[in-house]
Design brief:
Layout: H1 11-31, H2 34-38, H3 48-75, E1 87-88, E2 94-95, H4 108-129, E3 139-141, E4 145-147, H5 149-173
Antiparallel strand pairs: 1-2, 3-4
């Protein structure tokens, strides 16, 4: 379950947790065979590759949002972006919005490249707007509502950690070939 975002910590704590979770993520992906990387127990469950792709997509979007919020905070303005309310499964788990739902057929190399690029972009955005992370500007998240730049950084931290746990379960249940 995703923890309440306020308990995640400051930017330094988030960056430390992101570094640790990315290390775990890459370690898990490195030991999966190509068959295990794309294996899905059924069509309702994402493969390890799809989970990794989703992580990269969300992180890339978060980097863009942190930049936009940083600029808005510097200008003393707010972002006017319509964000549809998030949907949940019957068991309460969040359903990824279509914009960050990964295709099932992306190439492993492309997914790995996306993870590298998205992390670089996130770190650059944080570096450029570190002093603005707790500015007045907010942007709605589909599930958490209005978040500052720090709120988005906290969200991406727990998001990746949750999906690393999901990847561990995939790794444990994927058939060995």
């Amino acid at each position: 379950m995703i923890e309440h975002l306020d308990g995640v910590g400051d930017a330094d704590a988030c960056l430390a947790r992101l570094a640790a979770s990315r290390g775990e993520l890459l370690s898990i992906l490195a030991v999966l065979s190509d068959d295990q990387f794309v294996w899905r127990p059924d069509q309702e469950v994402w493969s390890a590759g799809m989970i990794a792709h989703h992580i990269g997509m969300v992180e890339k979007g978060t980097a863009r949002i942190v930049r936009m919020l940083g600029v808005a905070s510097q200008r003393g303005t707010q972002l006017q972006v319509q964000v549809p309310q998030g949907r949940r499964r019957e068991d309460g788990r969040m359903i990824a919005p279509a914009s960050v739902t990964p295709p099932a057929d992306a190439a492993r190399r492309d997914i790995m490249d996306l993870l590298s690029i998205s992390r670089m972009e996130l770190l650059q955005a944080i570096g450029e707007h570190r002093s603005d992370l707790e500015g007045a500007a907010t942007m709605d998240h589909p599930f958490y509502g209005p978040l500052t730049g720090l709120g988005w950084l906290r969200m991406i931290t727990v998001h990746e950690e949750w999906h690393v746990e999901q990847l561990r379960r995939v790794q444990e249940t994927a058939p060995s070939h």
